[in-house]
Design goal:
Cytochrome Bc1 Complex, Chain D, domain 2; binds heme C; single chain; mainly alpha
């Protein structure tokens, strides 16, 4: 029946964005566990004086997306205070990360633990890269 088909298509197109979103976070979590957890820890708490925490970091939930993209891709060891504390380990770069990987891992760290910031889209990562 025509109408049934119509509603099926409507239902699926309504669900897809949610499924896609959930998938990105699952992928982001997987990347975090394989590439970030060793330093930033499963609870995002980092290691005092060594590895910056991601949970509760004003930068991680902040609006400077270009900086976050740069850090994930290129690594980080500026040794400037982050929320008042210094961390002396060196963050390794992730040159193999595709733009979608960066979006997914940033979405994961911005929405995990106590962090409740917006997710990051592929378009935002691409725009951030064009800016620099
Ligand atoms: C080898 C350890 C290490 C790994 C692996 C690592 N980081 Fe880091 N990360 C650090 C350190 C150390 C700093 C702080 C460096 C400094 O202050 O100079 C940092 C800083 C950051 C910051 C900035 C935090 C702020 O408050 O400004 C972000 C964001 C970040 N890391 C995300 C990630 C993500 C995402 C991954 C995985 C893709 C990752 N890190 C993997 C050690 C690591």
């Amino acid at each position: 029946m025509q109408l049934k088909k119509y509603f099926t298509v409507l239902f699926i197109s309504f669900l897809l964005p949610f499924l896609g979103n959930a998938q990105n976070l699952v992928h982001g979590k997987k990347l975090f566990e394989t590439r970030c957890l060793v330093c930033h820890q499963a609870d995002g708490g980092g290691v005092p004086n060594m590895n910056a925490p991601l949970d509760g970091s004003s930068n991680v939930v902040g609006n400077d997306i270009a900086r976050l993209v740069r850090i994930v891709k290129g690594g980080y060891s500026e040794k400037v205070p982050l929320d008042g504390y210094y961390y002396n380990n060196v963050m390794t770069p992730n040159p193999d990360f595709k733009d979608q990987d960066i979006a997914d891992v940033l979405s994961y760290i911005r929405t995990s633990w106590s962090n409740k910031a917006s997710k990051i889209t592929l378009a935002q990562v691409q725009a951030a890269k064009r800016k620099k």
